[in-house]
Design a protein that fits this description.
Strand content of chain A: 15-25%
Distance between the termini of chain A: 24 Å
Number of strands of chain B: 22
Shape of chain A: globular
Oligomer: heterodimer
Largest sheet of chain A: 7 strands, mixed
Largest sheet of chain B: 9 strands, mixed
Helix content of chain A: 25-40%
Number of helices of chain B: 17
Radius of gyration of chain B: 26 Å
Number of strands of chain A: 19
Radius of gyration of chain A: 23 Å
Strand content of chain B: 15-25%
Number of helices of chain A: 12
Shape of chain B: globular
Structural class of chain B: alpha+beta
Distance between the termini of chain B: 75 Å
Chain lengths: 429, 572
C-alpha cells in the first residue's frame, strides 16, 4: 500500500519549502520529499526579486515597476504581481525578524564578497547594517585563512563602483584558527561558543580577542563588515556582542558557497515546516511515477529507498526539483529533459545553440525549464497540461535567467506560493 | 656594430624554450620572445603524451627510434614533468591481426620494449577496457606535463643568463639585403598581462642570429623576412574528462585514424584527437563533430567514456611541414619528422634558421640540432649538456620532506608539481590555505607562480594547475586573482580575473551537457547571482544613484546600530 498524503512536494529548496508551507496552511497532510542537500547552501541568503530587466537594464530601484513589462512565459508573468506581493508577505511572516527590507518596495544595494554591489529585495538582519545604499564609512575585515574574501581588495572594488561612503579593508589573523583548512562552521562555532583562544597574551574568549584585533583599525568608521561567519544558530547574539565591544554596527558580507546565511535560511524554513507538521522525508530520490489509465493524472510516484521502489500517493503534486544546478533539469549530448515526469523542456536541438561565446552572454541554457500555464501546470509540446494534478515551482521553470535578472529567490517564493496554493485547493475541491 | 643579444629565439613553446636552454648553457647570450605566455601556441594544446615511439614503429622508424631515446632522456632530466604511466596498444576483434604483429616487430626493430598481453591481462591492468579487446601491446608510453616542461626549460635558460620575454609579439623581422639581423617587438603589457613594462611599447632587438621556432606560425614569421616556409598547420581536438578512467595511456592498434588515444593526465584523462588541415593557425572552427567523434570512437575501447563527465575541450595546431615535392594530400600522412631550414643554404639569406615539424617528445633533440647549427654559424665551440643536466625541479628529491602543515594529499600533489623546489615554495610562516580545491593548489604555490609570471593568471594556471579541475575555475578564479593584490591595484586584478574566466569558458563551452552543464550553471549563478560580476558597475561604467535605493531602517541590524555614525549629516 502506498504512503498517502494530500499534497506531495518534490524538492527541498526555497520553492519546495515555500510550496509545502503554503499548502500546509490549507491542507492537512502535506509531505516534502528531498533528495540531496538543497542548493540553499550555495546561496547568499539574499532574497532577490528582480534586480535587472530581461534586457539587462538596471539596477532596478523598484522591481514592481518592471514586473508588468516582463515577457509572456516569464514565471512572474504567469503568476501575476498580486501573487508576488502575497508571497513576499508570506515569507516576511515566516522569517520574522531574521530578514529586513519589507518596509519598502525598493531594492537595497548590498556589497558582495568581491566588492561589487547587487540589488536585492530582502536581506538577512546580519547584512542590514552593511547596505551599500546606506552611506556610512565602512571597514571590511578579512582573514588570512579565508582566501575567498580579500577585504582590502573588496574595499578598493567598492570604491571603483562609486559607493557614496569611505571604505577601507584590512586582513587579520582569525583568533584561535591555526590550520588553513578549517571549515567555515569552525569559525562560526568559535565565536558562537566564545571559546577561549590564545592570542599570545594568555587565553581569552574568542569574541573579545577578535574585537581587540579589529579595534585599532576602526578609526573614523561607523560599521564593520566580516565574511558571513559570525556565529551559526545564535548569530544575532554574536553580532550584538561584537557591536557592543566595538561601538560600531557590525554586518556580514554575503558570499559564495558554502554559505552560512543560506544554511541559516534553510534552517528557519525547516523549523516552520515542523511547526506546521509537514512530513519531511529526506535522502530519497523520486525515480518514477504511475499515471492514471488515461494518462491525465499522476496516481503515485515511486521513491528509491535502498534499491526498493516505494510508492508515495497524493491528490496533487508539486515539482520543485530545481534547475540545471539542482538537477531538476538534466541534459545529455542530445537533449534537455525533466527527469522524473519527462515534462516537455523546449530547447534547440543542436547543443552548440545552448550557449553564447561570451562567459556572461545571454545563454539559452540559463532559461531551460518547463513551460507552465497560469496555474503553474507543466505543459506538453501541444500546449496542454502534462498532468491535471502536477504543478511546478522554482528553478525547474523555464523562461527566465535568474542569474542575469537577480530574480531566483523571488521566483522560487512566488511560484512556490502559487503552486502550493493550487495544490491545496485541489485537495479541498 | 654591437648587437643587443647573440641569439634571438622566437617562440616560447617546447622547442623555443629548449633551444634557449641549450644555447644559454653553452654560454651564448640568448633572448627568447613569445607573443603570449609560455606554451601559448601548440605546446600548451597537446594531449600530454610522451611517446615511446611505438606509434611510429611501422610508418616512420627513424622517428620511433628518436622517440624512445628521448623518452629515456626525459625520464632522467625531467622527472617531475613525467608520469610513468606505461602505455597499451589495444586491438579490437575487427582490427587487423597482421598489423598488430607488424607493430610488435617494428617496436623490436626500433629498440622499444614491447610485451604482448592477452585481453584478460590488459583488463587486469585497465579494468574499464571493453570486454572484447582481444590483445594488447604494452610499451613505455608516459604522460608529460608540457607546461611544467616548458617553464622548467625557460627557468634554466634564465639561470644561465637568458632573457625570456612573454607577451612580446614580433611585428617585424629586420632584414638588410641578404642578412637578417634582428626583430622589432611589441610588448603587450598592462592589466591582465605580465605587468613589467610600459604597455604597448615597441623595442628593436638586434642579434647575431635569429631562430624561428614559432611552429605552426613559422610561415607567417618567415614572411616578415620575405622568406617562404610552407608549414601545413593541422588542427587536432582534445576532450578532457573529470577523472582518470585509466592510469595507462591507451592507444588503438590500427594504422591511423582519428580518436585513437586516451592519456591520463594529472587528475584527468585527455581524449585525442582529430587531424584537419587549417589555413590560419589563429582562426579555425572548433567543431561539435570532433567532440562527438572522440567520445563515440574511444568508447569502443573504453565504454565508460560514453557516460563520462567531460569538463572541456580544446584544440591544438600541429606545425606539420613537408619538404617540397612530396605533395601529400591527407595531413595524417604528412611526416612527423622535424626539419631545420637554414635560410643561408636554402634562400641565400644569412642570420636566420627556421625549425618546423617535430613533436614535444623530441623537443630536446630538436633543440640540440638547432643549437649545434647556431654554434657552427657563429663559430662557437661548446657542447650540448641538456641530455645530462636535470631541469630545475627534477634534481634528486630530498628523502625527508616536511609536510608543510598541509593535508598529506595536498602536500603530495604540490610535491609532484614542484619537484625539488617544493621546500623553497611551500616553506612559509604565513597561513597557506588551499585556493583551488579541485587540484589542491595552495596560496604559496600561486604566489610563487605570480612571482615568475606577473599578472597573467593563465601563466599562473599552467604553472600550478589551479582552475583546471571539475569546476573549471568557477570556485577559485577570484581567490587566485586576489593574490595579485596589493602588489597590483584593483582594476588590474579585475582585468586579470576576467581574462582567466574568459579562457576557462572558451574550453568549457564544448562540454556543456550533463554534470558539466550543471556546473556551468552553478558557476554562472555564483558569479552573476551572488557576486553580480556580470553587471558590476565598476565593469560597466554605469553610474548608480545609490540614494534612490533602500537604505534600511534605523534599528536595522542586530542591536540598535550601536554607535553608528553617519557620514552624510544625519540618518535620513
Amino acid at each position: 500500500m502506498a504512503i498517502e498524503d494530500d499534497v506531495l512536494v518534490i524538492g527541498g529548496g526555497l520553492a519546495g519549502m515555500t510550496a509545502a508551507l503554503t499548502a500546509a496552511e490549507r491542507a492537512s497532510r502535506v509531505r516534502l520529499l528531498s533528495y540531496k542537500q538543497s542548493t540553499l547552501c550555495h546561496a547568499s541568503g539574499l532574497i532577490d526579486v528582480l534586480g535587472y530587466a530581461p534586457d539587462r537594464s538596471g539596477p532596478l530601484v523598484d522591481p514592481f515597476d518592471a514586473i508588468p513589462d516582463l515577457p509572456q512565459g516569464h514565471p512572474y508573468e504567469r503568476v501575476g504581481t498580486d501573487a508576488i506581493r502575497e508571497a513576499l508577505h508570506f515569507f516576511d511572516a515566516v522569517v520574522g525578524d531574521a530578514y529586513r527590507g519589507a518596509h519598502t518596495d525598493r531594492n537595497a544595494l548590498v556589497p558582495t564578497g568581491d566588492g561589487t554591489v547587487k540589488p536585492t529585495a530582502r536581506y538577512p538582519a546580519s547584512t542590514a547594517a552593511g547596505l551599500a545604499s546606506r552611506p556610512r564609512a565602512t571597514l571590511l575585515v578579512g582573514f588570512e585563512t579565508l582566501p575567498d574574501f580579500d577585504a582590502p581588495l573588496a574595499a578598493a572594488h567598492l570604491r571603483e563602483t562609486g559607493v557614496p561612503f569611505e571604505t577601507r579593508g584590512v586582513t587579520l589573523q582569525f583568533p584561535g584558527i591555526q590550520r588553513a583548512d578549517a571549515t567555515l562552521t569552525r569559525y562560526a562555532h568559535l565565536l558562537e561558543r566564545d571559546e577561549p583562544v590564545d592570542a599570545g597574551a594568555g587565553a581569552a574568549p574568542a569574541r573579545t580577542v577578535l574585537a581587540e584585533a579589529v579595534r585599532p583599525h576602526l578609526e573614523g568608521v561607523s560599521r564593520v563588515g566580516f565574511p558571513p561567519i559570525l556565529g551559526d544558530e545564535h548569530h544575532a547574539v554574536v553580532r550584538r556582542d561584537l557591536e557592543e565591544r566595538l561601538g560600531v554596527a557590525v554586518f556580514e558580507v554575503p558570499s559564495g558557497p558554502p554559505s552560512l546565511p543560506g544554511i541559516r535560511l534553510e534552517r528557519l524554513l525547516f523549523d516552520a515546516l515542523e511547526e506546521l507538521s509537514v512530513r519531511v522525508t529526506t535522502g530519497v530520490p523520486v525515480v518514477d511515477y504511475e499515471a492514471s489509465a488515461d494518462g491525465g493524472r499522476i496516481e503515485h510516484v515511486l521513491v528509491d529507498r535502498n534499491g526498493q521502489r516505494v510508492p508515495y500517493r497524493a491528490d496533487s503534486y508539486v515539482l520543485a526539483t530545481g534547475g540545471l544546478v539542482g538537477t531538476g533539469i538534466d541534459s545529455s549530448r542530445e537533449r534537455v529533459s525533466e527527469p522524473i515526469f519527462d515534462c516537455n523542456v523546449a530547447h534547440p536541438t543542436d547543443r552548440y545553440d545552448w550557449f553564447e561565446d561570451d562567459a556572461f552572454g545571454d545563454h539559452p541554457f540559463a532559461r531551460f525549464g518547463v513551460t507552465v500555464d497560469r496555474e503553474l501546470r507543466p505543459l506538453a509540446a501541444d500546449g496542454e497540461p502534462e498532468f491535471a494534478n502536477l504543478r511546478a515551482a522554482g528553478a525547474v521553470l523555464g523562461g527566465y535567467d535568474y542569474a542575469a535578472e537577480k530574480s531566483g529567490s523571488g521566483v522560487s517564493l512566488a511560484t512556490g506560493y502559487v503552486a502550493g496554493t493550487h495544490a491545496a485547493a485541489e485537495v479541498r475541491g | 656594430m654591437a648587437r643587443d643579444t647573440e641569439v634571438l629565439v622566437l617562440g616560447g613553446g617546447s622547442t623555443g624554450c629548449g633551444v634557449a636552454r641549450d644555447l644559454a648553457r653553452r654560454g651564448l647570450e640568448v633572448t627568447l620572445l613569445e607573443r603570449g605566455n609560455l606554451t601559448h601556441g601548440t605546446t600548451g594544446r597537446m594531449h600530454g603524451l610522451l611517446h615511446s615511439g611505438a606509434r611510429y614503429a611501422i610508418s616512420d622508424q627513424a622517428s620511433a627510434r628518436e622517440c624512445i631515446e628521448e623518452n629515456r632522456v626525459l625520464r632522467e632530466i625531467a622527472g617531475h614533468c613525467v608520469e610513468e604511466t606505461g602505455g597499451l596498444f589495444v586491438k579490437r576483434p575487427e582490427d587487423s591481426a597482421d598489423y598488430f604483429e607488424e607493430k610488435l616487430r617494428g617496436c623490436r626493430d626500433c629498440g622499444i620494449p614491447a610485451r604482448v598481453r592477452s585481453g584478460r591481462e590488459a583488463r587486469e591492468i585497465e579494468p574499464f577496457l571493453a570486454p572484447d579487446i582481444d590483445r594488447a601491446l604494452e610499451v613505455p608510453d608516459a604522460a608529460i606535463d608540457p607546461f611544467r616542461l616548458c617553464v622548467a626549460n625557460a627557468r634554466d635558460a634564465e639561470a644561465h643568463g637568458a632573457r625570456i620575454e612573454t607577451h612580446a609579439e614580433v611585428v617585424d623581422v629586420l632584414r638588410e639585403g641578404d642578412d637578417v639581423h634582428g626583430v622589432e617587438v611589441r610588448h603587450e603589457s598592462g592589466p591582465g598581462k605580465r605587468v613589467h613594462r610600459r604597455s604597448g611599447s615597441t623595442e628593436t632587438i638586434t642579434a647575431e642570429y635569429v631562430v624561428n621556432a614559432t611552429g605552426a606560425w613559422a610561415g607567417q614569421l618567415a614572411g616578415m623576412a620575405d622568406l617562404e616556409v610552407a608549414v601545413r598547420p593541422s588542427k587536432g581536438a582534445m576532450t578532457i574528462t573529470n577523472v582518470r578512467q585509466v592510469d595507462t595511456v591507451i592507444n588503438r592498434c590500427r594504422p591511423k585514424g582519428d580518436a585513437d588515444i586516451v592519456v591520463p593526465h594529472e587528475t584527468t584523462a585527455i581524449l585525442g584527437t582529430t587531424d584537419v588541415e587549417v589555413d590560419d593557425p589563429d582562426d579555425y572552427p572548433e567543431e561539435r563533430w570532433e567532440v562527438d567523434l572522440l567520445i563515440d570512437r574511444l568508447a569502443e575501447l573504453l565504454p565508460i567514456l560514453r557516460e563520462a563527465r567531460t569538463i572541456r575541450s580544446f584544440w591544438g595546431v600541429r606545425p606539420l611541414y613537408e619538404p617540397p615535392g612530396r605533395g601529400t594530400e591527407d595531413p595524417t600522412d604528412i611526416t612527423r619528422e622535424f626539419f631545420l631550414l637554414d635560410h643561408r643554404e636554402r634562400d641565400g639569406v644569412t642570420g636566420m634558421a627556421s625549425i618546423v615539424g617535430g613533436k614535444v617528445t623530441t623537443y630536446r633533440a630538436m633543440a640540440e640540432t638547432v643549437a649545434d647549427h647556431v654554434c657552427a654559424e657563429l663559430g662557437v665551440r661548446a657542447s650540448c649538456s641538456t641530455a645530462d643536466e636535470p631541469l630545475p625541479g627534477s634534481e634528486e628529491l630530498e628523502a625527508a620532506m616536511d609536510d608543510f602543515g598541509l593535508r598529506s594529499p595536498i602536500a603530495r600533489r604540490s610535491r609532484q608539481r614542484l619537484g625539488s623546489r617544493t621546500r623553497d615554495v611551500l616553506e612559509t610562516d604565513e597561513p597557506n590555505p588551499v585556493l583551488c580545491d579541485c587540484e589542491g593548489v595552495t596560496r604559496a604555490e600561486v604566489r610563487d607562480a605570480i612571482a615568475q609570471s606577473g599578472t597573467d593568471l593563465n601563466a599562473v594556471r599552467i604553472r600550478t594547475r589551479a582552475s583546471m579541475g571539475n569546476c573549471q575555475g568557477g570556485f577559485c578564479c577570484h581567490a587566485i586573482a586576489n593574490e595579485l593584490h596589493p602588489a597590483h591595484d584593483e582594476p588590474v586584478v579585475r582585468a586579470a580575473l576576467d581574462e582567466l574566466l574568459k579562457e576557462r569558458w572558451r574550453g568549457e563551452r564544448h562540454a556543456l551537457w550533463g554534470d558539466q552543464l550543471s556546473q556551468a550553471m552553478l558557476n554562472y549563478a555564483l558569479h552573476a547571482t551572488t557576486l553580480n560580476r556580470d553587471r558590476d558597475p565598476a565593469r560597466t561604467g554605469e553610474s548608480i544613484d545609490y540614494g534612490a535605493f533602500d537604505r534600511g531602517q534605523t534599528g536595522d541590524g542586530a542591536g540598535a546600530f550601536v554607535g553608528e555614525k553617519t557620514t552624510d549629516g544625519g540618518d535620513r
